[in-house]
Amino acid sequence: MGMNFKNVLALLLILAIIAASAIIGIYGLEIGNVKINPIRESMRLGLDLKGGVFVVLEAETNATGDDLDKIMNQTKEVIERRVNIMGLTEPNIVREGEKRIRVELPGAQNASDAIEAIGKTAQLQFIKPNGEVVITGSQVKNAEVVFEKDRGNIPSVALELNSEGAKAFQEATRELAAATNINDKIIAIVLDNDVISAPAVQNEIPNGKALITGNFTLEEASELAALIRGGALPVNLVEVQTSAIGPTLGIDSLNKSIDAGTIGIILVFLFMLVYYKLPGLIADIALVLYTSIVLWTMVALKATLTLPGIAGLILSIGMAVDANVIIFERIKEELKNGKTLRASVNAGFSRALTTIIDSNITTVIAALVLFQFGSGPIKGFAVTLMIGIFASMFTAVVVTKILLKLFISFDVFRNTKLYGA
C-alpha cells in the first residue's frame, strides 16, 4: 500500500506541475508581489508578426578578409547605437553574408525615416574657408540639443569636444576671429558633404564647446545630435532591400499561425490517443509539458518568435511524437513476443533510444548549419527547431518513461489491451 501511495503522489505531483506550467503560460499568474505574464504577452515577436520595417544595407568597400570584418563589425556597432538612440524596442541587427547588414525594427511605422537615420554616414566636419578640416565627428565627445535664449529659444546642437578637438578648435577660432573680411571668419559645418550651418567666428573659443546653429526644428536638431553621438559610419551604405509590414498584417499572420498550430496539435493528440490508447494519452500529457518548456525557454532566452519560428515549433512537435511512436511500436512488439508489461516498457525504451538519438542529432546538425549561415527569419526557424529538439528528447524519453512506469504500477492499468497489443 505504501508503495502505491507514493506512486499516486508522484503521479499527481507530475501532472500538477505539467498543468500549472500550461495554465500559467496561458493566463499568467499573480500572487502578492510575484507577477508572471502570460507567454503571449512575454514573447518577443519578430517583424513578420508585429509589423515594422526591415532594411538590408550593403557596404561600398573593396576591403577583404580581416579588414572587411573589422569595418563591418564597426558599422554594425554604429547602427546599433543609432537604433538605440531612436528608442525603438527590440531591434534585431545582424550581419548577412560578407558585406551586408540586416536591420529589423519591429513596431517602427515609417520605413523611409528610420532607414534614413540609420544609413547616414554622418561624416561631420568643421571646415575653414581655405578648405582645411579643423575637426571631425570623431573628436566630438558629446552632442545634445540646447535652446538659444537670445534667438527666441530655437533649438541648436551643442558639442563638447575632446582635448585634441578643443585644442584644434581653439587655434582655428583664434585665427578666424582675427580676420577682417566677414567671409574669412566663416567655419562651415558639413554633415555628409552638406553644409548644415556656416556661422562666422566672433571670438576665440577656448573651452572645447561649440554650437551648431541653423534653422532646425526640434526633431531635426535631435536627430543631428543623435547622429553625431552615434559616431560616423566607417563606410558608405547602399540600401539593397527594404520592406515595411503593417501591424494588422502581422497580427493576422500571428492569429492564423496560432490557429494552424492549435489544429495541428489537436490532430496529433487525437491520433496518439486513438492509435496508442494509454501510452498515447501519456504522450499527449508529455506533449503539453513539451510545448510549455519550448515557449518558456524562448521567453527566458528573449528569443524572437517569427513565422518560420512557429513552423519550426510545429515541426518539432511532430518530431516529439515521432520519438514516442518509435518507442510505443517497440513496446507493442515486445508484448506480442510474450514479455511482461514492465519488461516490454523497459526494452521498448532502451531499444528505441539509439534510433531516436541518431535522428535527432542529424536534425540538430541541420539546424546549426541554418543558424550559422541563414539570414534573420531562417535563424529564428533554426533556434526554435533546436530548442524543440532538446525539449522533445527530454519529454519523449524521460517524462513519458516515468509516467508509463507510474501508470503500470497500478493494477487497473495492467491490461495489455490498453497498450494497443
TrEMBL record:
* Residue ranges of domain SecDF P1 head subdomain in the record: 131-235
Instruction: Determine the domain of life of the protein's source.
Output: Bacteria
Give the UniProt keywords, A-Z: Cell membrane, Membrane, Protein transport, Translocation, Transmembrane, Transmembrane helix, Transport
User: In terms of one coarse class, where is the protein primarily found?
Assistant: membrane
Q: Name one GO molecular function term.
A: protein-transporting ATPase activity
Q: How does it sit in the membrane?
A: Multi-pass membrane protein
Q: Where are the transmembrane segments?
A: 258-276, 281-301, 307-328, 349-374, 380-404
State whether keyword Cytoplasm applies. Answer: no
Places the protein is found: Cell membrane
Enumerate the spans annotated as Protein export membrane protein SecD/SecF C-terminal domain.
238-405
Return the Pfam families for the record. SecD_1st, SecD_SecF_C, SecDF_P1_head
Residues of the Protein translocase subunit SecDF P1 domain: 72-130
UniProt GO cellular component terms:
plasma membrane
Q: Name one GO biological process term.
A: intracellular protein transmembrane transport
The family classification in the record reads: Belongs to the SecD/SecF family. SecD subfamily.
Kindly state the subunit structure of this protein: Forms a complex with SecF. Part of the essential Sec protein translocation apparatus which comprises SecA, SecYEG and auxiliary proteins SecDF. Other proteins may also be involved.
**Role noted for this protein:** Part of the Sec protein translocase complex. Interacts with the SecYEG preprotein conducting channel. SecDF uses the proton motive force (PMF) to complete protein translocation after the ATP-dependent function of SecA.
What is the official name of this protein in its record? Answer: Protein translocase subunit SecD
